[in-house]
Amino acid sequence: MVRRTSIRATSIRAAAFVVPLALGGVCELVAFALPWARYRVEAASAQAPVQLTGDPGMSLFVAPGGTRYLGLLLALAALVAAAVTGPLRVRPACGSFAVVLGVVGAVVANQIGARAASTASGVHAIGLATVKAHGAAGTGVLFGTLGPVLLGVGALAAAWATSRDVAPAGAPTAPAG
């Protein structure tokens, strides 16, 4: 006989995976909206200093390595879906792989930020002007690092919560006591 769990235990397990999945999804949406790189542009002229306004940023979609990160997110989304709704025997493996892929996604996000921060270029027009650009990682990198890890942990919690104490089809159940 399989023991049925109480409603309270089930709701605690549901909250254990809903919260990280929701936070991870919000982090990814914020990461898409914020710039992943910021550039400070300085210009100097032989005649007079030139003031440039604005702080140009680079979104994830045009950042070097951004498509690799998006591919990892799609694979992570598939693993999260399999951990929540897949067959019972597959759920724990999908949850475990989702955590690993979440950590890999965080490493890729940090690499994108490091590439943006190390970008510095200068253009010199002899006798006319000098333009220099200094790169720095944007705030999107922070959210892009947190999002995949939270999604992976949420998938593991979902696999644990949805595959525990589930009676096979046709098995007798004991009354909750």
**What proportion of the residues form beta strands (DSSP E)?**
15-25%
Helix/strand-derived category reads alpha+beta
Gyration radius from CA atoms, angstroms = 24 Å
Major sheet: size, sense and barrel closure?
5 strands, antiparallel
User: Level of helix content?
Assistant: 55-70%
- Cα distance, first to last residue? 14 Å
Low-confidence stretches: none
What's the topology here?
Layout: E1 2-3, H1 7-33, E2 37-45, E3 49-50, E4 57-58, H2 66-85, H3 91-118, E5 120-125, E6 129-137, H4 140-163, E7 173-174
Parallel strand pairs: 1-7
Antiparallel strand pairs: 2-3, 2-4, 2-6, 5-6
Give structural notes.
With 177 residues, the protein is α+β, with helices and mostly antiparallel strands. It has helices at residues 7-33, 66-85, 91-118, 140-163; strands at residues 2-3, 37-45, 49-50, 57-58, 120-125, 129-137, 173-174. Strands 2, 3, 4, 5 and 6 form a 5-stranded antiparallel sheet that branches. A two-stranded parallel sheet has the order 1-7. The longest helix has 28 residues, at 91-118. The two termini are 14 Å apart. The mean pLDDT is 80.
Which properties best describe this structure?
alpha+beta; 56% helix
In short:
By secondary structure, this protein is α+β, with helices and mostly antiparallel strands. It has helices at about 5-35, 65-85, 90-120, 140-165; strands spanning about 1-5, 35-45, 50, 55-60, 120-125, 130-135, 175.
